[in-house]
Predict the 3D structure of the following.
Amino acid sequence: MSKVEHTTIRNNSLFCLNCGGNHPLNMPVAINEMTKKIDAFNVLHKDCAKTWTEPKADQSKSVTEKAMWWIGNGHVGMSSKTMWNYFIGNKDFPINHPYDPDDFSRCWELLEAVPEWKERVPELATLSKEWKALSENWEKLTQMYEQNKKENWVNSKKVGMYEFMQNLLGYGS
């Protein structure tokens, strides 16, 4: 089967970045079953026209409305959900931090949807030592991420965001 560049996994579903079509994934799933599902999805979406665009939060809405929109419509990951739970005021939730630029991208997208929370990022330092290191360097991480995004990740090694994050988290060499 040929490689399909517009298939990804988004919010626990196979997702077509061209048409927005999706197929839910019930986890856990055996690797061979997952492969079959991906192959079938790719066949269905191999010739999709580019009609889907990333949805955006309506910035005229309240912070709570934008936050609720994001949890239902945004690209949600474990670390961005941690941020969402903290900022929304929940008291009991799993604490996960971004491990790499892909994880960071979902956190960045949350803050784009709810920009009022950007100034609150330093508060995340109270969640864990990893969040402390990340929140203290959030501005630099944001600059690195936005540079990578602008350059379509072609200079990502030179930008060094992955390595920088790994060092912040204590995983670097």
